[in-house]
Amino acid sequence: MRAQSTRFLVLGLLGLGGCGLFLGTGVGELLEDSGLGWGDSLADESRSLDTAGGEVLPVDTAPPVDTEPPIDTGVEDVGDWAYVSAGWAHSCGVKKDGRVLCWGLDEYGQASPPAETMSIVSAGETHSCGIKLDGTAACWGYDSVGTGDLDVPEGTWTVVEAAWGQDCVGLRPDGSLEFWGRAVHEGFGNLEGTYVAVDADSYFACGIDRGGTISCWSTYLGGDFRAEAVDETPTSGRFLSLELDGSQACAVDASGSILCWGHGSTWAPSGTFAAVDVGQFHKCALRGDGTVTCWGDEDYLGPSVFDVPKGARFKQISAGGWHSCGVTVGGRALCWGWDYSGQSTPPE
After folding, report:
1. Residue-level pLDDT at 179
2. Is residue 346 in some structural domain?
3. What is the C-alpha to C-alpha distance for residues 221 and 227, in angstroms, rounded to an integer?
4. Where in the sequence is the domain holding 124, given as residue range(s)?
5. Pairing relation of β-strands 12-13 and 239-245?
6. Which of 276, 285, 262 is nearest to 216 (CA)?
7. Is residue 276 part of a domain?
8. Mean pLDDT, the chain, integer
9. Taking a C-beta distance cutoff of 8 angstroms, is the pair 203, 170 a contact?
10. Burial of 347 (C-beta count, 10 Å sphere; 0-12/13-18/19+)
C-alpha cells in the first residue's frame, strides 16, 4: 500500500454520493488552532452548509465568492429537504424530519432504505449508507461478497461513505478511520491515526488528520491510475474541502480556487467557489452565492449532465454517475442529467 501526505486546512470532505459538505469531529479544533473562521453560509441563517452526521456549526467568514445574483424564475423555493446524495443510477436524500427517501435504480435494494430516521445519507454505486440519529449507521443494497460485508461495525460514527463498488468507510467520534465491505478485500485495513474527514473509492482513499495533513492511499503499488493520483497529491497550499472519485481528486483552497489532480483531465473553472464535488464522469462546483457550474466530457455524457437548473440557488450539491442533485437554499431537492432509472426525479 502506498501513501503520500501533505499539510492542509480542511473544512469538510465531499464524496461521490458521499457526505457532502459535512464537518467531521476535530475540524473545529483545527480552525481554532489556525485562527481562521468558518466558511460563509449559503443558508438564510448563519450556519454551515452541512455536518458529517453531527452538529451543525456556526459560521463567520468565507473565502472570496462570486456575487452575481441568481435569476428570479418565479418558482417558490420552499421545501423540506435537508440533504441529497447522487449515486451511480439512484439517489437518496434526508428530509428535515430525518426521513430517508431514495429514488432511481433499485435492482439490489440500494434505493430501499430501512425505516429509520437519519441525519445523513450516502448513495454509492449499488449500495447506500446512512447515520442514524443515535450515531449508529446502516448500509443497504448489493453485497458482492455475499458474507454480510455491508453490515456496519458496531458503535457510533461521524462520517459514513458508500463509495464505489461495495466499498464502505467511516470515521469514529474519536477520529479513527475504519473500512468495511469490499474495501477490506481490496487490501484496505483500518489505518492508524486520527482523522477529521475521509473519502474513498475502489482501491483509492484519502483522509485528513487533526493537524490538517491529508494522506492518500492506494492498494495498487504502481502502474495504476489510482497510484498515479496518490503520487500527484499537492504538496503545498491550504484547502477548505476535498473530494475524490475513481482516480482523480479535487480540492478548494483558502482563496476559493479549485485544484484537481490525478489521472485524466485536471482542468477546473476559474473563479471562487465554496465546494467541489467529483462524480464518476463529471464534476460540479458550488459558488458562495449558491450558483453551480458543472464540467466534463460533454461529447461523451451529453448536454443534460451540465444543464444545472437555471435560477436555482443551492446550499449543498452531489455529483453522481451521469447525474447530479442538490438542495436549494429554500429546501427543494433538484436533480439534473440522465434520468433513465428515475435517478433525477426526486419525490416531493
Report:
1. 85
2. no
3. 7
4. 2-337
5. parallel
6. 262
7. yes
8. 76
9. no
10. exposed
Q: What per-residue confidence (pLDDT) applies to 22?
A: 34
Domain count for the chain = 1
Which pLDDT does position 183 carry in this prediction?
A: 62
DSSP-assigned beta bridge partners for residue 102: 92
Give pLDDT tens digits for 37-47: 323 323 333 22
In a domain, 315, yes or no: yes
Q: How many residues appear in the chain?
A: 348
Any alpha helices (H) in the chain, and if so which ranges? Answer: 27-34, 182-185, 225-231, 298-301
Our measurement of the distance from residue 241's CA atom to the centroid of its chain's CA atoms, rounded to an integer in Å, reads: 10
pLDDT of residue 30: 30
The rounded distance, in Å, linking the Cα atoms of 160 and 172 is 9
pLDDT 10s digits, 74-121 = 456 889 999 999 999 999 999 999 999 999 999 999 999 999 999 999
Task: Report CA-CA distances (Å) from 106 to 141, 206, 342.
Answer: 8, 29, 10
Here the CATH number for the domain that contains residue 239 is 2.130.10.30
Distance CA 305, CA 150 (A): 30
Residue 245 has φ and ψ, to the nearest 5°, of -165, 140
Q: Is residue 343 part of a domain?
A: no
User: 40, 59 in Cβ contact below 8 A?
Assistant: yes
Question: Which candidate, 15, 188, 241, 51, places its Cα nearest to that of 131?
Answer: 51
CB atoms within 10 A of CB 115: 6
